[in-house]
Amino acid sequence: MRHPPRARRTTRHLSWTTAIAVVLAFAPAAPLSGESPVEGANQATAPVHIELTGSRPADDAAVEGPVERVLLTFSGPVQADLSQVMVVGPDDWTVPASRAAHPDAEASHQLVVRFQAPLPDGDYQVQWRTTAPDGHVVSGDLAFQVTDAPPGAERPAEMDALEEPEEEAAVLGMVPPGTGQRWLHLLATVLLLGIVAFRYGTLGPLGSDGVFETVRERAGAGLQKLGWVGLVLLVITLGTRLHHQLGELAGGDGLAWEFLGHLLFQTAWGAGWWTHLVVVVLVGVGLILLGRPGAGGRAWSTLIGAAVLLPLIPTLQGHAMGSELQVVTAPAMYLHVAAVGTWLGGLLMLILVGLPAVRKLGGGSGALPPLARMVNAFSRVALPAVVVLVASGGVTSFIQGGGLSGLLGSTWGRTLLLKLAVVAVAFFLGFYNWRKVRPSLPGNPDAGTLRIPATVEAMLGIVVLLITAALVATPLP
Ligand code: HEM
Q1: Domains detected in the chain
Q2: From atom 1 of ligand 1, which residue's Cα is the shortest distance away?
Q3: How many other CB atoms sit within 10 Å of the CB of residue 11?
């Protein structure tokens, strides 16, 4: 196999895929960055999860009429088009009111609903649900009483009877909703990034003597099969993630189809969903081309395009986009996910595809047996990836966690600490494999020596992905 022509093709295709990635990354920032924080709101330097910081009427207040509107103030910007505010009056009647809106263009951290007529005397409950710029849905309620309403403030005849609220879907134990499908999506991401990283990072530099031509051929078929597995997971999660997000917006009461257009076209989450769709198409086309004789170059260029876009999806659909320091957290999260795919995905490919491909091979033309050369090549890619992984994860934890108190005193922080504990064990095993097992391979070229510790390392990595999926579905401190 001749390297320079392939390298040139790759560079050309990388440039257009990178261009798409950059456009997709910055397109959603425009509408979101318009939601500037407002003076007086409880805006800490470190980003905080959106919460209600005040209301008019205030919670538990007895207000002398007339009351013609409810104003809610949040700790940060909220998306009015993805918000619902319902006011329930005496005898469980819903009060006819306008849609939730920002009181003016500058007040992106406030929502107001206006009533058709001043409220009559009685007890009222406000049930609100809104969406932060990072796509997280938050909800709550408050109550107030109206006394001395002005003459003529009566319950309008067209008030609707309030339907019995459906039981909230029970959350299994401590696991936040949406964790399972995010995990499946992360698994697909890691598989597909791993395929490209292993093909170009590990197999690519191994030279083109007869032995490694055979390894590449054997590995190619395995990589293609795993690619189909990744594609199926991507297709499933494309549907389930949209379904889940619409369900969240509806507050467990069916699906909020009325928000579909806004969600898909005006939020960072929606940009992530479109990126997901584009990746599905690219991976599908790439895998089909891979099965056609003579189309290998185009197939791999298409798969590289998908790999460039893949880390954008969790970046656009996670906490990184809700941060005030988005300019740091978004690129850090992109690098974090790309590094996860290179290390964990590459390791999975080494175990599932690389080790079987070198089994029963002869000594090859190099000084080292093929297994040792392949593991050395993998280590040269995995080590820098782990450095990037730790640095980008550290930066993100520091910014999003808001310091040590945020880490220890919140569910998000404790989930992150659990993740770090498992990461520490996985990295310890990785270190053992690198320092002890790898140097022993030239004298003992039996793939079994490496398979067990490497498989445990990869399994721990998959557990870390599961904890991470729960972490991202948990509100920031
Ligand atoms: C020193 C080690 C690490 C630190 C400090 C760290 C920290 C973080 C933080 C703070 C986030 C953002 C979570 C959020 O937005 O709520 C994150 C996301 C992520 N981490 Fe790590 N991490 C580390 C290692 C790892 C490892 C070893 C893996 C893989 C096995 C991993 C996989 C991921 C993934 C896939 C995401 C993106 C999840 C998503 O947005 O869907 N991290 N990490």
Answers
A1: 3-33+174-472 (no CATH), 52-152 (2.60.40.1220)
A2: 390
A3: 10
CA angle, 458 then 477 then 242, to 5°? 65
For 48, the token pair is 């905080």
Residue 407 CA to ligand 1 center (angstroms) comes to 14
Helix, coil or strand: residue 316: helix
Q: How far is the CA of 332 from the centre of ligand 1 (A)?
A: 10
Q: What are the residues whose beta carbons fall under 8 Å from the beta carbon of 469, sequence distance 6 or more?
A: 179, 180, 182, 183, 186
- Number of the ligand 1 atom closest to the C-alpha atom of 386: 27
Q: Write out pLDDT tens, residues 227-278.
A: 999 999 999 999 999 999 998 888 767 888 888 998 999 889 999 999 999 9
181, 344, 419, 476, best to mutate for ligand 1 pocket (most atoms within 8 Å of CB): 419
pLDDT in tens, 418-456: 999 999 999 999 998 888 888 877 766 566 678 888 999
pTM over 0.85: no
* Residue 476 Cα: closest atom of ligand 1: 16
CA 389 to ligand 1 center in whole angstroms? 8
**Cis peptide bond upstream of 57, omega within 30:** yes
Q: In this predicted structure, what is the pLDDT of residue 456? A: 95
**Nearest-atom index, ligand 1, CA of 474:** 16
The first and second tokens of residue 465, run together, are 């992905």
